[in-house]
Amino acid sequence: MNMMKCGVKKPALWVFLILVTLVSGCTSGKGGSLSIYTPEETRVMNAARISDIIGKIISQPDQYLSQQVEIVGYFRGWDLLKEVKGSPPVTRSDWVIADNSGAIYVTGNAPPNLNPASRQDTNKVIHLVATVEQNQNGVYLQAISVELIPIE
Predict the structure, then answer these.
(1) Which end of the chain lies in a sparser environment, N or C, as judged by fewer CB atoms within 10 Å?
(2) Whole-model pTM above 0.90?
(3) Contact assessment for residue 130 and residue 108, using Cβ atoms and an 8 Å cutoff
(4) pLDDT value for 151
């Protein structure tokens, strides 16, 4: 085909059109974009987005009482970084989770394989599902489930 007869005078336009056609054809069977990550890697990356809800729970506890929340944050053990005011609200074994907006005590099972007395574990990212509770000592979270998020 003679490019001059088609009205296209520059081969770069043909290259562009071919590339657009090729790139638009690189999708998965569901119409989504082609990903270089496995589903598990994508889950970990999405889960590893640090929350910003703890500050809201602390400043407006009545809006969250008895509600279930999900938090992705840093395990802080037995308040090793002194981020929470006051003493543990339920037991001496209460531990702390911190996110981008604050830190709060959690009562219940700590994340497996993390030591609440170790500063080495205070940068570990965890996913917590908990209920917001309050007693005479303050607002806290009652752990329902907690898991360590492996971050490379």
Answers:
(1) C
(2) no
(3) yes
(4) 76
